[in-house]
Design a protein that fits this description.
The protein is α+β, with helices and mostly antiparallel strands. It is built from 13 helices and 23 strands.
């Protein structure tokens, strides 16, 4: 994390006076209820009885499409013209802000910038543009995430109903100041998105090269000929306790999913014994994959692996399966991309056990995934592309930019720092 609360670049500009940021003792102005300055639209899913709902048209946003906070959400499905017509009253007037209000991920927030319909788990704030800037609203609502989770009702399935959600309050400075605040924070999010797109493009290059090699391969190996299941993971303790005195970062399946989505992973810090740490320390060429819940996301252990999490030691929890090279770790690139290809093709359904909580049958995975037989030079080429796609330095830059944004956000919202006229 950056030493300065604004990061080196913003701090330098602040000191020179060239950035329109200035310290102030003023407060952030009046607070208003969301429904006083916006319309709240609850989403809807088209009926499953119609087979022609889906196509390449209007975006259909669900909670799984949204990171914790998401400036540029990417939807996995789109509606057809017929599908949109069936939920035409729920089409969002953009720009607007979508907020997850049902389920374990209450408080997820996304800025909607294209024609969109959401499902029923999402309430969307459509601002009165004469009073509330949508981009400012996106950042203001981030300050309400903890409140949303606290006031949600229900235990098995938490719900933040539309009436309660509408009563949330946000600060409302003048519209021109809202836009300036959103401009500063948005500039940081734009830089983050540039880095994220570089990572996505690098991965697509690696995957395309792998598919080309696969199509020309004379033979294939099963993943079981190259990898075996390693020692099971551990969750550890919340705090130092007895022999559990070693502080480590422990990866869960959701952290692998965040990395896969080029979002910022926030794995928890746990405490394990020295023996537990020693037995599970990551080795080059291993592949760690989600073992329960959302199956498919995975990550190879490469140089700079720990740097991805800003930690000196990274281990895996009991929610993650560890695949260990049997002999030659240089198969990590082709093996990982073969797993990714199988996941994208829907083959992980064949490696799933359980219904309420899906678990990964790692032995079935090893038997079922086929890896093209590549010579050492071809493997080096693929491995280089995989390492480029993961880019620990670039991911660290994303984390630093996000830290700068997150530290600046409450200062701007509280009025302790103001954006002056440009």
């Amino acid at each position: 994390m950056m030493a300065s609360p604004f990061g080196p670049i913003l701090q330098e500009m602040f000191l020179r006076g060239s950035t329109p940021l200035r310290k102030t003792q003023m407060d952030s102005g009046a607070r208003v209820r969301i429904d006083e300055v916006a319309t709240i639209v609850t989403g809807s899913t088209p009926t499953s009885k119609a087979s022609d709902n889906w196509g390449n048209g209007t975006a259909f946003l669900t909670p799984s499409d949204i990171a914790s906070i998401d400036y540029h959400p990417r939807v996995s499905r789109r509606l057809s013209e017929a599908g949109e017509h069936r939920v035409k009253t729920r089409v969002i007037d953009v720009p607007a802000v979508a907020v997850v209000c049902i389920g374990a991920t209450i408080g997820k927030i996304a800025l909607i910038s294209e024609r969109t319909v959401t499902n029923q788990q999402i309430n969307t704030v459509v601002p009165d543009r004469t009073r509330l800037d949508a981009h400012y609203c996106y950042y203001a609502l981030q300050q309400c995430q903890a409140t949303m989770k606290a006031i949600a009702s229900g235990s098995a399935t938490p719900i933040l109903n539309k009436s309660t959600f509408s009563q949330l309050e946000i600060p409302l400075p003048p519209l021109n100041e809202q836009r300036r605040i959103a401009g500063v924070l948005g500039a940081l999010d734009d830089l983050i998105e540039v880095d994220r797109q570089i990572l996505r493009d690098s991965f697509e290059v690696a995957l395309a090269a792998f598919h080309q090699k696969s199509e020309g391969a004379a033979d294939f190996l099963s993943l079981a000929e190259l990898y075996e299941v390693g020692l099971s993971g551990v969750w550890g303790k919340d705090s130092p306790e007895g022999r559990a005195s070693e502080q480590v970062v422990v990866l869960r399946g959701r952290d692998l999913e965040d990395l896969w989505s080029v979002n910022i992973a926030s794995p928890p810090t746990r405490y394990l014994s020295e023996q537990q740490v020693s037995n599970r320390s990551p080795g080059f060429g291993e592949i760690w994959t989600a073992g329960s819940g959302s199956l498919g996301p995975s990550l190879p252990v490469i140089d700079g692996f720990r740097q991805l999490f800003g930690a000196t030691e990274v281990l895996y929890s009991n929610f993650v399966k560890r695949l260990v090279p049997i002999q030659d770790p240089t198969w990590f690139g082709p093996s990982w991309l073969a797993m990714v290809s199988a996941w994208q093709a829907g083959a992980f359904e064949n490696f799933r056990t359980g219904t309420a909580m899906p678990n990964l049958d790692a032995d079935a995975l090893l038997r079922g995934v086929q890896v093209p037989l590549l010579d050492p030079e071809e493997r080096r080429s693929i491995n280089g592309l995989v390492e480029s796609a993961l880019k620990p330095d670039l991911r660290e830059e994303i984390t630093d930019l996000a830290s700068t944004r997150d530290e600046l956000l409450p200062l701007l919202m509280s009025g302790r720092v103001r954006v002056g006229d440009v």
